[in-house]
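Possible regression after last week's pipeline update?

I re-ran a chain I had predicted before the update to compare outputs. Posting the input and the new output here so someone can diff against the archived version. Not blocking, just want to make sure nothing changed silently.
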Amino acid sequence: MRRRHTVDAACLKTKAAGGEVEAELTTYHAMCNSACGYLFLGATSREVAPDAALAVHNSRLVLVFHGHPAPQAVAEYRQRRIANADRDRAAFIAAMGISRELDGLIRTVKFESLHMLTRAELYRFGIDTRPFAEGMWRLEKATRPFISKIAVVKKESGSSFGTMEWRMFCETRNRMPLMFAGEIDEASVGKSTIMMTADADKDQEAGGFPVRAAKYEMWSGSIDPDMVKAIMASRSLHVRRTTPMPDEKVDVAKFDIDLTGLASMRTQLAAACSSVAAKPKGPWPASPWPATPLPNVTAPPSTVPSP
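New output (post-update):
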């Protein structure tokens, strides 16, 4: 507790000093629920990062009476207040241009619980209607440091979304290990391919055939200095994912991955790598992807903040 007070005091001192204050935004495992959710729904622009979560639950009515009113009067008053609260919430959701399905869902979730909205629900309800969403590059300072980015993309064959992740590891022998992992489309048949090129030099290309493991597919390779240089000098990484489908059809998904912030993360990665005393035996992590579950697929936390 003392350490927290020290940090808070230092933060307050910095903010009170005036002038420009540098800050870093992170969405990884961020959670918005209870009253936060209604604030978010009221925004003019709504974007939920793929590595964050928006959760909902029903309201709890707390009544304080003076004197000793009759039980029937208390019950009737409670019923009216709950009906008014439900009506106000439904009107607010509709006014924000969000589907009434959300209100119906909220009514089914107990106050003591949480329902974390899936990416498909965020899209269907009209909360975040982006068919493709990506998080920020972030540094994971683990036994094996790496840079990662998580993204989700809507499948053309339906309303579901697939999660993907890119990881860049410590450079070895003048080459940088790069890994791509993604959820497998259940309707796919045969092997898919993943290919990536950068703005600065489209002749440089990385990718190949991912290896399937459970419901995920993973591709890992080691890119040369020219490819690394091209990536660091580019604004976007162009990704082409080809998936064989039934009836000899092929699903081709093309999207761009924002490379903003990757160069600074690479500098931090180099520092983290140099601080690791014991080097790994192999170029790839031993644990299967994803190493840490995403917010939208984990169980709700045991405690729920009050609205």
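Follow-up from reviewer: compared with the archived run. Residues 46 and 112 are 26 Å apart (CA to CA). Marking as no regression found.
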